[in-house]
Amino acid sequence: MKILAIETSCDETAVAILESLGDIKGASITILGNALYSQASLHAEYGGVYPSLAKREHQSNLAPLATRALKEAGLFKTPSKTTTINRSSLESIRDEAFKLSVEKFLTDTEKPDIDMIAVTKGPGLEPALWTGINFAEALGTHWKIPVTGIDHLEGHLVSAILKKTSPKTLEVTHVEFPILSLLISGGHTEFIVMSEPFKYKELGGTRDDAVGEAFDKVARLLDIPYPGGPGVSALASLSRSRGEKNAIQFPRPMLQDDSCDFSFSGLKTAVLYKIRDMKQLSESDKQNIAEAFEDSVRDVIVSKTRRAVLTARPKIFAIGGGVSANTEIRRALIELMQSEFPDIKITFPEDDLTGDNAVMIGAAALLRGEHHIKTSDVLTAFGNLRLAE
């Protein structure tokens, strides 16, 4: 099965072409084409993602990225005769410039040899999500190819069980259920249990800020440009490298709570008050604050993971989302599992799949297809879509 996948949930525009064989217990997925454009530098001046700007950039880049992905896959051809556009395929697109871009793409592109189109339907920024959905529906209607909506978090979960066996090949190996997944990103912090293929239950989640959001807010307090997570971690690493005891300590929110839930808003406030008290910060002060903050986040995540593992008793512990790339958090989780739960396999995404990307969306759709598990026939944007109840 070949699939064209589209991701526009936030500030990455991505299109990928994938082909698969096998199911979730032994799938092999080939990346035929992959194109991604990050808007991060454009949103830096706002200290976070500006929804109308994200929407505009998605509209400008979807057609060029789709062309690039199709060309890389060897599936791009120009029509041998004049193409008549099915006007109904453009009905849902309101922006005239975007409509012209999509119309030109369809006019210049012969129907490729693909079986399905997959697009992120949520959660995320609804203006951004709608842009990807409108593009996918236009292609599907014109080419007469089915379109399916995929949960963004399901994509992150699936990415954590994919391993590269070559630069263009991903495989799912030795999957056993239940799988406990920790999804940590700018918008999400939650434990999800997959008891069988694509059957989910939420074990715990954040009651306020997601962990990536907390990193970004602390970054703004320290004058680190967006996206702030990598910058905060870099400062923390410099502080640790000095090998000195850090005099700054922050609370570990909900550490004694017997749930698998998180709360990071109070931690961010503690950092704010500390910076106000210190008034003028040297570079070493910033590094110490970053280390103390990251240590607090790490300790909370490790403690909650221990509780979640004891509750779910999984065969596999899979960590997905952008914050899964954090070196200190990753180190601590590996240490926890190896020392206390050595029989449970721990997995992380490949480095280039930790952030938002179309490969994970296509992979989730392909694995669903192999299991004959459909998503809802209603294709609409759900900003607050939940993967599990």
Descriptive account of the structure:
By secondary structure, the chain is an alpha/beta fold. Helices cover 41% and strands 19% of the residues. The chain has helices at 40-43, 51-72, 96-108, 126-143, 152-159, 211-221, 228-241, 265-278, 283-312, 327-340, 358-370, and strands at residues 2-7, 12-21, 28-38, 116-122, 147-151, 163-166, 169-171, 179-184, 189-196, 199-205, 316-320, 345-347. The strands form 2 sheets. It has a 7-stranded mixed β-sheet, sandwiched between helices. It has a 5-stranded mixed β-sheet with strand order 10-9-8-11-12, sandwiched between helices.
The biggest beta sheet reads: 7 strands, mixed
> In one word, what is the shape?
globular
Radius of gyration: 22 Å
- Extract low-pLDDT stretches: none
Average the pLDDT over all residues and give the rounded result. Answer: 93
Instruction: Kindly provide the name of the CATH class of the largest domain.
Output: Alpha Beta
Major beta sheet, strand line-up: 5-4-1-2-3-7-6
**SS-based structural class?**
alpha/beta
- Secondary-structure element pattern, one letter each: EEEHHHEHEHEEEEEHHHHEHEH
- The CATH topology of the largest domain is given as Nucleotidyltransferase, domain 5
Name of the CATH homologous superfamily of the largest domain: ATPase, nucleotide binding domain
Percent of sequence in beta strands: 15-25%
- What is the number of beta strands? 12
How many H/I helices?
Answer: 11
Q: How many structural domains are formed by the residues?
A: 2
CATH architecture of the largest domain: 2-Layer Sandwich
> What separation lies between the terminal Cα atoms?
31 Å
State the helicity in percent bands: 40-55%
